[in-house]
Amino acid sequence: MSQVLEMAPQSRAYESYEGGEFSYRPVLGLAIVSVILTLVSLLGLLFWPFLAIAMLSIAVSGVALIQLYRSAGEYRGLGAAWFSLVLSAVTLAAGIGMQIYLYRTEVPPGYERISFASDISRKGIIVEKGQVGPHPDVAALDGKKVFLKGFVFPENKADGIKNLLLCRDSGDCCFGGKPKPEDMIGVMMTGDKTVAFNPNRVSVAGTFRLNRNWNGQDREPLYLLEGEFYSAAQTDF
User: Fold this and answer.
1) How far apart are CA 30 and CA 68, in angstroms?
2) What is the pTM of this model?
């Protein structure tokens, strides 16, 4: 009898422990992942490629919410998933809106936006009667005030640059060897303006000119720009 009385408290203690363990609800793993992705996606406000992570975070948060509601309280993390979904959506909308605003306001007044790639490089050059010359569409830009983006060909000078070679991109077609005539523009800053070398994409604006004395020498530009504006590009578009 005494043995039975001694065992009863142990049995009740064991049942209480089991009850406490059964009431524990783990946090859903996807909810944690969504929070991490959301925090990383905030970089999209500074660097637009990270906005893709915001889109991924929205998808992961949505899946996490579906699983949480279907689990009938088996998992925790509902607040974290909603937090991630809302903040990721706000980040994505704000990032896209910022890029649109910068794109619409980055061109200085009085200049026409042109694309280095589609309006100049892809036009190529023409050969007529043995003479190499610009494409008619590019020649039509002569004398116009234009705004475009490109990459500064690296030279030995890092600051106080008066004349520079602007290339379509920083890949093999330009920096890996001799740029093609249609892939480079000679920029001559006007007045006492000088610029500093920037390894990233830059924006330039000025009056577009044809180099009528061009003879095809190494890195001699067929196209020229009387540079009046120079800055780091605000967008990549």
Assistant:
1) 10
2) 0.77
